[in-house]
């Protein structure tokens, strides 16, 4: 076993995917297929973004519990939760290729929510990030 190379079974840091349009077809802009490069669940970027999201959500929950305990009106957290998710998606997106928008601009646009959902699904599955040796 001393010849074992663990990198042969590790997930890739990033992976590139086609972005699908509303019809479920690859999005094409100016004759080029739009792709997105994402940081995978094993990357430092993903781990930091997930940890930040977890902390932020916990802080919202604690604030809500304190407000409830003090019988105060609880704050509507919809905008906070959207911001937290936007920050995570932005941090986990290395770049869009063929789309003249920054990741933040894509995720801030509520009407591009279908792209947000694609990114969430892709990030949620380790199998989407195989390293080169696992692709064969």
Structural class: alpha+beta
How many helices does DSSP assign?
4
Q: For the terminal residues, how far apart are their CA atoms?
A: 22 Å
Q: Multimeric state of these chains?
A: single chain
> Considering DSSP H and I runs of 4 or more, what fraction of the residues is helical?
40-55%
How are the strands ordered across the major sheet? 1-4-5
Beta strand count:
5
Percent in strands: 5-15%
- Structural domain tally: 1
Low-confidence stretches: none
What is the arithmetic mean of pLDDT? 92
Largest sheet: 3 strands, antiparallel
Radius of gyration based on Cα positions: 18 Å
Gross morphology is flat
Which series of helices and strands comes N to C? Answer: EEEEHHEHH
Report on this model:
- The protein is an alpha+beta fold and 136 residues long.
- The chain has one domain.
- Helices cover 43% and strands 14% of the residues.
- It is built from 4 helices and 5 strands, in the order E-E-E-E-H-H-E-H-H.
- It has helices at 44-69, 78-92, 103-108, 113-123; strands spanning 14-18, 28-29, 32-33, 35-39, 93-97.
- The strands form 2 sheets. A 3-stranded antiparallel β-sheet has the order 1-4-5.
- Helix 1 packs antiparallel against helix 2.
- The two termini are 22 Å apart.
- The model has no long low-confidence stretch (mean pLDDT 92).
């Amino acid at each position: 076993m001393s010849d074992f190379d663990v990198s042969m079974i590790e997930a890739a840091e990033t992976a590139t995917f086609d972005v699908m349009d509303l019809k479920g077809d690859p999005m094409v802009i100016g004759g080029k297929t739009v792709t997105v490069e994402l940081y995978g669940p094993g990357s430092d970027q993903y781990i930091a973004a997930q940890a930040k999201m977890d902390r932020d959500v916990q802080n919202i929950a604690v604030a809500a519990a304190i407000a409830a305990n003090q019988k105060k009106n609880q704050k509507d957290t919809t905008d906070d939760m959207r911001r937290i998710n936007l920050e995570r998606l932005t941090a986990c997106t290395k770049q869009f290729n063929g789309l003249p928008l920054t990741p933040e601009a894509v995720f801030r646009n509520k009407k591009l929510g279908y792209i947000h959902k694609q990114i969430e699904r892709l990030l949620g599955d380790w199998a989407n990030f195989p390293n080169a040796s696992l692709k064969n």
